[in-house]
Write a structure and sequence with these properties.
The protein is of the alpha/beta class. The protein has helices at about 1-25, 50-65, 80-95, 110-120, 145-160, 185-200, 215-230, 245-255, 275-285, 295-310, 330-335; strands at about 40-45, 70-75, 100, 125-130, 140-145, 175-180, 205-210, 235-240, 265-270, 290, 315-320, 325. Bound molecules: alpha-L-arabinofuranose.
Length: about 350
């Protein structure tokens, strides 16, 4: 009888401990990881699905990390919140994935969770945008875009479009600046290039600036507001930090019946070079497109394979990216474009 009661108490205690553990782990939902141990398990944390570009990046990663290629991919969408991405990385750590791929919404604020990944011995590959951390050892490698270089291409184009006159006098250039998600590498690099150009050209002025969050809806709203405050004839350039924002700006201008793009005196610059944006460019609605390449899946697979072989990865790999004006484009080229 005594033994039975003891066993019963022990059982109850175990149930209580198990329940407490369950409560404590409620913040982190742990899905089952595939039992097939031959697959390399990769957790991929995306900031969200704010743009056509990002959807193309997600597709590229999903197409590259297939089971046929030897991978089990766990994809998490952070719904445009850093806290969600941090929670998703903690989930990957609990699941014991082999690699974590992080496309960070902003550059800072990752130290703690990356330290947790390091303690768990999980290599972290940063993709698309970069992070700024106290110790670069907190991530293994970075694969993505050089956003400063992208911004420089846009500024070089503007410098050619608005040259000084024969006496060296610079024209006045009034710019509307629609920024991307503040604090993201994409915004920082592209905005910085414009800021440097403003320091260099004293006749270049920003007449309006706001953050479009890399979305069409927000950029359209901003542009409508700008048109209430600034005469359209006073706007020479609209510098959109991605194609979704450019689409929003174009929609606002079209609604207001304002001509824009080629031959109108209102130059539109955009980044990404998605298929839809290249169509705008070919039609003359967008003057200059700086490419940002989302087809990063194969590069990331190569990186994982290299690490699997025990080789060391380069700290930074920047993907090749081009630039386009109307003259570089044909309908056939755009038709064949993957994103
Ligand atoms: O980080 C890349 C940027 O993020 C792309 O320009 C944009 O479209 C995306 O949302």
């Amino acid at each position: 009888m005594f033994k039975l009661r003891n066993t019963f108490c022990l059982l109850m205690a175990l149930i209580v401990i198990a329940a407490l553990c369950a409560c404590n782990s409620q913040e982190v939902q742990v899905d089952d990881v595939d039992e097939d141990t031959s697959l390399i398990v990769v957790g991929f944390s995306q900031p969200g699905a704010e743009s056509a570009w990002r959807v193309a990046l997600t597709d590229s990663v999903k197409e590259a990390f297939t089971e046929d290629a030897g991978f089990k991919l766990i994809y998490k969408d952070g719904q445009s919140k850093q806290d969600n991405q941090i929670r998703d990385i903690r989930t990957f750590i609990q699941q014991g994935v082999d690699y974590i791929i992080l496309s960070p919404i902003v550059e800072t604020g990752w130290d703690t969770v990356l330290e947790e990944a390091e303690e768990a011995n999980i290599p972290v590959i940063i993709c698309d945008r970069n992070v700024v951390v106290s110790n670069e050892k907190l991530y293994t490698t970075f694969v993505g875009s050089d956003f400063s270089e992208e911004g420089k291409k846009a500024v070089d184009y503007l410098e050619k479009e608005f040259p000084p006159d024969s006496e060296g006098n610079e024209p006045e250039v009034n710019i509307v600046h629609i920024q991307g998600t503040l604090g993201s590498s994409a915004q920082i690099g592209r905005s910085k290039a414009l800021e440097l150009a403003l320091e260099k050209h004293e006749n270049w002025n920003v007449v309006a600036e706001d953050c479009g969050e890399f979305t069409k809806a927000k950029a359209k709203e901003i542009m409508k507001q700008v048109l209430r405050e600034v005469r359209s004839s006073d706007i020479d350039v609209i510098y959109c930090e991605n194609d979704d924002e450019a689409a929003g700006v174009i929609a606002a201008l079209d609604d207001a019946g304002i001509p824009h793009g080629e031959g109108t005196g209102m130059t539109i610059i955009s980044f990404d070079a998605t298929r839809k944006a290249l169509e705008f460019c070919l039609n003359g609605d967008i003057n200059f497109e700086v490419e940002c390449n989302p087809l990063q899946g194969p590069y990331l697979v190569d990186m994982v394979k290299l690490l699997e072989r025990g080789e060391s990865a380069p700290k930074h790999t920047y993907i090749d990216e081009g630039e386009f004006t109307k003259d570089d484009l044909t309908p056939e080229f755009i038709e064949k474009r993957k994103y």
